[in-house]
Write a structure and sequence with these properties.
With 680 residues, the protein is mainly alpha-helical. The chain has helices at 21-24, 27-41, 44-55, 98-102, 113-131, 140-165, 192-209, 224-239, 249-253, 270-284, 313-316, 329-337, 359-367, 382-387, 418-422, 442-447, 521-533, 556-569, 577-581, 583-597, 604-610, 614-617, 634-637, 661-666; strands at residues 4-5, 79-81, 176-177, 348-350, 378-380, 448-449, 453-456, 467-470, 492-493, 519-520, 539-542, 549-552, 623-624, 641-642. Helix 6 (140-165) runs parallel beside helix 8 (224-239), helix 17 runs antiparallel to helix 18 and helix 17 (521-533) packs antiparallel against helix 20. The protein starts with a strand and ends in a 14-residue tail after the last helix. Keywords: Cell outer membrane, Membrane, Signal.
């Protein structure tokens, strides 16, 4: 009989602790380790520690939202980071600059902890799944829940790998046969479709035994909704143009070791229906809703009175969820991210909780201005700034003019005066702010640190510094300098910043902790709308548990369930009937809605790739304010220019991340992504 060992003990991929065949043929050591495993899983305490350890690899490079030292993928054509510049050849791998990242000047060895962490997590989760049933100190219900948690996190690790590297090897469920030769146990890449189907099926199995909710102390533990929402994400990507009906030269070259194509060249519309049904599964749980803050008639500087959106009879006269009469759209959006709501957030589906440690706080430290001792280096591009709507749902004047798009209109001139403020105009702008930033939608003010924005720094020790208007003109302290501490576009990031946040004296503890929004309900709604829009027929798709069958089609009423709540919560009117009727126009609007709603949450980089929009969008010049201008040259400052310090391009090798050379050597059946080397 063949002998097998746990995946904890051996796998030829992603470990780095095996160097020769003799290393893994010494079976005595494995039997000893196997006895330790059996002993560990006989104990409830050790089993719980094992499960907790299985989740530990979700941090660092495996985080969805964190500072760029771990996840530069949070930055694309929407956001950038200005520090970590310098000579690429003289700094360590962790210091990948934005230009190197955004132009493909990284190597096969950069940012590769994802591979190691994910496969390590997969091994640990598999060992847990295979052995937890021997535990006699736990109830059957506890074992089922714990096993489902391990199954979820194993699927999530696979998802992170698939999203970053494309098709990856799926490891055997029952371990590796150590009596075979090294080459015989090498594992080829599965196709994208096979990976997605496997992950989706595993998430269904996990969902069956996962709890519907968790208490505050278990906020980072997965729920049924987390499994089903992750499944919807996976199926959406599998339905998207990069992996569904891709016939370009890149898809032809992405093959396994036997020449089998790994991206589907045959378009299958039903994949969109499956993604829509998966999103509907989450919606039908009845557990999640968009967070809303109540309307405030009065307020203070940090929490101002509600700025009422322009009048629309359909929305201004109706309470949430049919309108915004009783909610504050600005605070509703801002509070989701800045630590105000925390574990009580009804739209938070999956989060690592505090597993990310100080990484979320470090991200905010890089957004804060110098007056708060922040790094002042994370910023927004002009393209992202223009993406936000006016408060009446129209485009801002001059939108995308510099990149040859838009309606040909000019950007607004002029600045807010004291007389304007006395008349109650242009809230929440302060004096001296360009009218280009006036009358924007609430998400703009919750997300964008425009020139002249007011930072509410309640934790600052000096009263004069608690409400600080910050300008990014050259010579004004937060503008262009000969250091790294300046915004390359003159436009910063306000999202994730709490009014109490400050980095005074480098104290990370003065930044309010934030729960990472890995998956939230707004994303599920957007998945539903996007997938429905791509359909031309009707598909009968069973619910995840077989309790119902959905008739999935491009139904405008259903599409509105995905878009309308997000628009209303944001204080902007729903799309017109003409938009819903036009598949191409709705697709364009949907992409923009994701760009706005999910900004800074790690989606844009991957969205541009799955839509196959990256070659155009990531090759456009990056525009921003003319940061070399002083306050005496403010008109020139607010005339967008191509930023000399920010580069952009897209080459075909950038569709997926390269696989590390050492992994290719360990696994002889593993193939490299097109455009990258083997180092043979």
């Amino acid at each position: 009989m063949k002998k097998t060992i746990s995946l904890l003990l051996f796998v030829a991929i992603g470990t780095g602790f095996l160097s020769s065949c003799s290393d893994y043929l010494e079976s005595d050591q494995y039997f000893k380790d196997r006895m330790n495993i059996e002993k560990a899983f006989s104990s409830k305490q050790y089993s719980e520690e094992w499960l907790a350890h299985t989740f530990s690899d979700l941090e660092n490079e495996c985080a969805d939202v964190a500072s760029k030292g771990y996840t530069p993928h949070c930055f694309a054509d929407d956001m950038y980071y200005g520090d970590r510049d310098g000579d690429y050849d003289t700094k360590d791998i962790a210091s990948l600059s934005y230009n190197e990242f955004h132009t493909g000047l990284y190597s096969e060895n950069d940012k590769q902890d994802t591979w190691t962490q994910c496969y390590r997590g997969i091994r640990n989760a598999t060992t847990f799944i295979q052995n937890i049933d021997i535990n006699k100190e736990m109830t059957a219900e506890e074992i089922a829940d714990y096993k489902a948690q391990a199954r979820f996190v194993r699927a999530y690790y696979y998802w992170l790998l698939l999203r970053k590297y494309g098709p990856i090897p799926l490891l055997p469920e029952d371990g590796i046969d150590y009596t075979e030769s090294y080459d015989d146990v090498a594992t080829p890449r599965s196709s994208y479709e096979e990976c997605a189907d496997y992950i989706a099926s595993e998430l269904v199995l996990a969902a069956k035994d996962l709890a519907q909710g968790r208490d505050r102390l278990s906020i980072a533990r997965p729920t049924r909704g987390a499994a089903l929402a992750t499944r919807a994400k996976v199926l959406l990507y599998a339905a998207s143009p990069l992996a569904n009906g891709n016939t370009d030269s890149y898809a032809m070259e992405l093959v396994d070791d036997e020449g089998r194509q790994l991206l589907s060249t045959n378009y299958d519309e039903e994949k969109w229906a499956k993604a829509a049904a998966a999103a509907k599964d989450v919606m039908e749980l009845g557990v999640y809703e968009l967070y809303t803050a109540s309307f405030r008639a009065t307020g203070n500087s940090s929490y101002p009175a509600t700025i009422v959106p322009p009048y629309y009879a359909d929305f201004s006269e109706n309470n949430w969820p049919e309108g915004w009469k009783d909610i504050d759209p600005f605070e509703s959006y801002r509070s989701v991210f800045n630590g105000t709501v925390g574990a009580d957030n009804p739209e938070l589906i999956f989060t690592r909780g505090n597993n990310g440690g100080e990484k979320g706080q470090a991200m905010v430290a890089h957004q804060l201005p110098r007056v708060a001792n922040g790094w002042n280096t994370h910023g927004i591009t002009q393209k992202q700034c223009d993406a936000y709507y006016m408060n009446d749902g129209t485009d801002c004047p001059g939108k995308d003019k510099e990149i040859g798009r838009g309606d040909g209109s000019d950007r607004l001139s002029g600045y807010v005066t004291q007389e304007d403020l006395d008349a109650g105009m242009y809230k929440p702008l302060a004096t001296g702010v360009s009218l280009q930033y006036a009358d924007r939608e609430p998400r703009f003010y919750a997300s964008v640190a425009y020139n002249g924005s007011v930072w509410h720094l309640e934790n600052e020790p000096d009263s004069w510094n608690k409400e600080k208007q910050v300008f990014y003109y050259r010579g004004d302290g937060n503008g262009y300098t000969n250091t790294m501490f300046w915004l390359r576009t003159g436009i910063g990031v306000m999202k994730f910043v709490h009014p109490r946040d400050t980095y005074r004296d480098g104290a990370i503890g003065l930044i309010v902790p934030k729960l990472e929004p890995a998956i939230r309900y707004a994303e599920v709604l957007l998945i539903y709308a996007e997938a429905l829009n791509e359909l031309t027929g009707t598909y009968n798709i069973p619910a995840w548990d077989g309790s119902a069958t959905y008739a999935i089609s491009r139904d405008v009423t259903e599409m509105k369930k995905g878009i309308r709540p997000i628009r209303i919560r944001s204080g902007v009117p729903d799309y017109t009937a003409d938009v819903y009727a036009d598949q191409d126009l709705f697709r364009t609007k949907l992409k923009r809605e994701r760009q706005i709603e999910l900004m800074g949450e790690g989606h844009r980089y991957y969205d541009l790739r799955r839509w196959k929009d990256a070659p155009v969008e990531e090759s456009l010049p990056i525009y921003g304010c003319n940061i070399l201008m002083t306050s005496e040259q403010k008109d020139l400052f607010h005339t967008p220019v191509a930023e000399f310090s920010l580069q952009s391009t897209f080459s075909r090798k950038m569709w997926f991340w390269p696989i590390k050379h050492s992994e290719l050597k360990r696994n002889k059946r593993l193939t490299q992504n097109p455009g990258w080397t083997y180092n043979d």
